[in-house]
Amino acid sequence: MKTLKIYISLLALTLLNACNFGQVKTFTSDDLKWFKPYNETETVIFKSEKGEIDTIIFHITDTTKYSIKDIEQGFYNKTTLLVAYEFTKGSYHQFTKINEEGKKYEQNILSISNSSSSEFTEKEISFIGIIFNGKEMENIKQLDSSTYFFDSNKATYPEINVEEGISNFTFDTEKGIIQYTDKRNVNWTRQQ
Length: 192
Description:
By secondary structure, the chain is mainly β. It has helices at residues 2-19, 29-32; strands at residues 42-48, 53-58, 62-70, 74-87, 107-115, 118-127, 130-133, 141-142, 147-151, 166-172, 176-182, 187-190. The mean pLDDT is 82.
């Protein structure tokens, strides 16, 4: 009898949780400002003070909506916005290779998620190995109304999955990445 009561209680909790899929809260204007430059796929050229070139393809913002329906993970809806980017062949900077065939790590410059099971918005900003998320998002320095400075010394992860890292980058909410400095202390500037 006791086992039956436990089973019924668990079933009731599961059904209540399942009914509580709820609405995913909408992203705020502060969340969405980072995605403004990525309303279409764009190829951007950066040139170093030494004449080296990085050609980077920034992809259009991808929106994914899905539902989790699992007794162990819970029952909730989730919405995620992502902006992927990649280096073209011949660029100075490259992502680290995963395998001998030359497949490289995939990277997102921006990732943000909201879930119906949480009031917390997950955010991550990452560029050429520097990753900001969690409490380190507070370390981003606002330079003016649309320009932000990211220092690898204040990042969650200062260098990951790249062959040649950078020390910092500057992001403009109208244009995207506008400048970065590599580990050799060489400045790179957006050409377009």
